[in-house]
Structures are given as structure tokens and as C-alpha cells.
Amino acid sequence: MIEISKTAIAEIKRMQTVRAQTERKFRVGFASGGCKDFYYTIDLVDSTLATKGANEDNDRVYQVDGVSVSIDLSHLAYLDQLKLDYSEDLMGGGFRFQNPLATSVCGCGNSFSMLSAESASARWQLPT
Fold it and tell me: Over its length of 128 residues, how does the chain's per-residue pLDDT go in tens digits?
């Protein structure tokens, strides 16, 4: 299960309100690419998860401080123990990811590697 800070929860709720999508789930995942092998993805999705070809049966949904958090089951092992925070600095605000399972992280903090891309893909059938 992932851990979400109070400031990240507040930002998710703000995003839902500003976009008039308060009933949508906050979906966390990752995709191939970025400065390293993978980059984190976040999105607000409706209950049918019609966006990005997702299927509700393939997602684990958690309730965290009044926010429904959705994670694709194929991503779950890679995001287990992920800590999600939100902070603002002179360059603006953004979500910050801390993943103890990542073997390396890009300076931007949004791109990461796990094992080698080949090993992880063969072992866990990583999504493309």
C-alpha cells in the first residue's frame, strides 16, 4: 500500500474541486520512458476507469483520508511502500515520489529504475 501525506491529500482534493471532478478516483501508476526506465503517472479517473484503456477489475482501490486511490494491479508490486508528498518551492508545486523499491532516481524525482528494465519486465511482465 502507498502512503500519501496530508499535503498531497489536500492537493488531490483541490485538483478534484478545481476540475469539478470530486467523485473521481486519484489513479497512481507508471509508464516506460523518462530520464530513467520509467516515470510516474497520476490522473483523476471516473468510476468506470474508461480513460487509458483501464478496467476497474484490474485496479485496487484504497480509501485514504476521503480520497479514493486507484492502482493498476500490475503496478502494485512496484508501487508498494511508495510515499507520495506534495510541496511547493520557487519553481512551483508538484507531487514528490519516494519509492524504496527504485534502484535509481533521476534528479527530477519523477523518473526511476527498478532492477534492470529487462529483469523487471521478464519477472513481472511490466506494462508498456
Answer: 789 999 999 999 999 999 999 999 999 999 988 777 888 899 999 865 544 445 556 889 989 999 999 999 989 888 888 999 999 887 788 999 988 888 888 777 678 888 644 444 455 455 55
User: What is the CATH number for 102?
Assistant: 2.60.300.12
| Alpha carbon 34 to chain centroid, angstroms | 14
- Provide the domain limits for residue 109: 3-124
Q: β-strands 67-72, 25-32: how paired? A: parallel
- How many domains does the chain divide into? 1
